[in-house]
Amino acid sequence: MRKPEPALGLVVRFDYLWNEEAERGRIEGTKQRPCAIVVAQTGQGSSARVWLAPITHSPPRQASDAIAIPPRVKAALGLDDAPSWIVTTELNSAAWDDAGIVPATPDRWAYGFLPTALIKAVVDMTLAHQRTRRTIVKREA
After folding, report:
1. Alpha carbon 127 to chain centroid distance?
2. What is the C-alpha R_g of the chain?
């Protein structure tokens, strides 16, 4: 199984490190979860970087903090049928060869791509949040 090139909207499995965990001194996430690539910088080895938005079952505190994933999109990605949201208030930045980015399933590297309209909404909302407060946890390879 070959790892794909990083691309906007690709949903991968990653040990996402929440901002509040990083502030407490953690350097790795506590669990692997689906995450959507909202920025992809191509390159070789660790020069290829991605900015990842976490996908969670926890409802957002405010509606503007996350975007709900429609059930049909979750089904197409092979995710469970519980409600889920893409968080837009924080990101992780990681090298594409980061060991925390792992295959989604034993036979698939990634879950698949978000629909164009959904990833555009996620990127737009994430950029709006980043203009007012910087919440990117940079992960070192």
Report:
1. 14
2. 14
